[in-house]
Amino acid sequence: MNALGSGNLTDEGLSGFGRSMVRELESREIAIDVSHLNDAGFKDVCEVAERPFAASHSNARAVPHPRNLADWQLREIADCGGVVGLNFCRDFLTDRRDDPTRDDVLRHVDHVLEVAESASWLSDATTMGATCRRGSIRAIACAS
């Protein structure tokens, strides 16, 4: 836990200071990123946030990894007009120790599109070199 809140491996949500910072950052038009929050912290952001927020690098929990987003979280992000970003780190794509395959990536893409098709989609072009566009998802490539 830090001054703002708790991470993935803890049970605490946002601190009072964390809640006030969500409001302060939004007042400065800075998007909140929920990628490292646990479920309680995510729920706290949903309660406090008045603007769309992002999970800049979080995949679908249904395709295994505990820090990935649960289906209800994907729907919350879509409902508020937020952005879901795919993380291409092997440990977030597959539980195998091999390099991830195209199919590993597409399992996450397909699941997010199925669960939260109205969410904006963020793709890491530094790893894949490509974006996806399907249905009502707007694909955005980050070339960092």
Task: Tell me what the structure shows.
This protein is an alpha/beta fold and 144 residues long. The chain is built from 6 helices and 4 strands, in the order ααβαβααβαβ. The longest helix is centred in the C-terminal third of the chain and has 14 residues, at 102-115. The two termini are 28 Å apart. The protein has helices spanning 16-27, 39-48, 71-79, 90-93, 102-115, 125-128; strands spanning 54-55, 83-85, 120-124, 139-142. Helix content is 37%, strand content 10%. It has a 4-stranded parallel β-sheet.
Short synopsis of the structure:
With 144 residues, the chain is an alpha/beta fold. It contains 6 helices and 4 strands. It has helices spanning 16-27, 39-48, 71-79, 90-93, 102-115, 125-128, and strands at residues 54-55, 83-85, 120-124, 139-142.
